[in-house]
Prior knowledge:
Helix content is 10%, strand content 40%. It is built from 1 helix and 8 strands, in the order αββββββββ. The chain has a 5-stranded antiparallel beta sheet with strand order 1-2-8-3-6. A hairpin with a 5-residue loop joins β4 and β5 (78-85). It is globular. The N and C termini lie far apart (44 Å). The model has no long low-confidence stretch (mean pLDDT 94).
Amino acid sequence: MFIDKEILDALSEEARKSPRLRMGKDMRTSAADQSQRMLNAMEPGTEVAIHRHTKTTETVAVIRGKVRQKYYDEKGQLVREDVIEAGGACPFYMVPKGMWHTTECLESGTIIFDSKDGSYEPLAAEDILQND
């Protein structure tokens, strides 16, 4: 499979029209594939809850646009943030297993490629940080 400009443009258009301002495209070869590989189109204003993945590291490549990746401690205090952009000096990043994090979209038309180990499992309530 080739991911070309038309596919990326269509995915971005779907994200713009979505109430969540995000749209994903499953990149696995079959439902039996024991990995997670997704293209995620994002628009500014989309909200990604502060969360963690307890079973896998998350590897992300910024294909188009720009994001701010934020990392938090167990108390919900921001401990680091980085701006990552397509074509930049370092358009890839890894989120360590168990690290609280969120992604903020900084440019319209942003698309990231996101991969994790194992089959998809929805986040459990204890893996979403309730920062009151």
